[in-house]
Amino acid sequence: xxxxxxxxxxxxxxxxxxxxxxxxxxxxxxxxxxxxxxxxxxxxxxxxxxxxxxxxxxxxxxxxxxxxxxxxxxxxxxxxxxxxxxxxxxxxxxxxxxxxxxxxxxxxxxxxxxxxxxxxxxxxxxxxxxxxxxxxxxxxxxxxxxxxxxxxxxxxxxxxxxxxxxxxxxxxxxxxxxxxxxxxxxxxxxxxxxxxxxxxxxxxxxxxxxxxxxxxxxxxxxxxxxxxxxxxxxxxxxxxxxxxxxxxxxxxxxxxxxxxxxxxxxxxxxxxxxxxxxxxxxxxxxxxxxxxxxxxxxxxxxxxxxxxxxxxxxxxxxxxxxxxxxxxxxxxxxxxxxxxxxxxxxxxxxxxxxxxxxxxxxxxxxxxxxxxxxxxxxxxxxxxxxxxxxxxxxxxxxxxxxxxxxxxxxxxxxxxxxxxxxxxxxxxxx
Length: 430
Description:
Blueprint: H1 7-21, H2 25-33, H3 38-53, H4 55-65, H5 75-90, H6 95-108, H7 115-136, H8 147-156, H9 161-168, E1 175-178, H10 185-194, E2 199-201, E3 208-211, E4 228-230, H11 233-236, H12 238-242, E5 249-253, H13 259-267, E6 272-277, H14 280-293, E7 298-301, E8 316-322, H15 337-340, H16 345-360, E9 364-374, H17 383-392, E10 396-399, E11 409-411, E12 421-428
Parallel strand pairs: 5-6, 5-8, 6-7, 8-9
Antiparallel strand pairs: 1-3, 1-4, 2-3, 9-12, 10-12, 11-12
């Protein structure tokens, strides 16, 4: 009989790829999940996400429990110990099972001689757990975020920064979007209740439903038939501002994985939509989403800074620009962002956003509307970006979203709310 793979060693390898090699967890994890039985996929994900969520605490603990760090070829063992510590602190896995499986992971990564070391460190942690956890509660790393990001959030949100950090460290709620072409939201909620799942309507966004507890998509009524899509509530907030109409030409820029493209077509099925993204691989997801929902859009690979390469001289009634950003509003969904981003990325991203805004504004018809959106909570990418654009663009006028002095609407992450997200709606005069 084929032996089951060691989940702990796979989790350690995934975290090492993220932290040491700068790989995104969403690129690393799917390949590793292919190696494990269906029943173990959720555990592998929980260990990877959990370790990255609490990385600074686990690093601090290892520093306390070991006299010198693991280096070179033994580095994977460092992350294996982290996986062990995370299980002991944050999961309901019985400690003896967590220890045994983690120690066994050393054999899988071809470091059997270090089994005793791993076992010793984890047992020492068990002995000192209360003292160490108490000590960490007063340490600079207690916010579980890099110091540069804590500093930026403190400056931007003097009274809310701790709540933002706290929300980032939680598991995210599961939000869905009901396809209004098939059911009203209330009608679909009734079907959901019949299937034994509790859901709640969002107070503002008309298609959004939050599940009381996350559920597999195959348990959702009509998922395969396109009745419902997994999409965060804040991402759905773009649509009411864009207000697409049948018969219009609409550009969805930076469109992958296609959640907003399909939302536009649910609201305006006779609109002509061009979905553009720079990432060829992620465009595959746009095609998949369109296919599942039985929709048609033109999909192109292209760079937002160079519309002459993909726009074919067209102008649009509406443009949705979900700009490339720091993704600091979606950390609870992607905890690796905390460790992949650098402080220096923020001005570089702001410059890129500025270039894309300048490049696509001429594609908007007079009287047309552009919605600028990011999943960031940093002012440089949001209010400051839009204020600067309004200053340099004579025919741009802000509407429905703030004032020229404080442009846009900023959503912040909260436990039963959507992710951190920013929107500004600009209309072209003339």
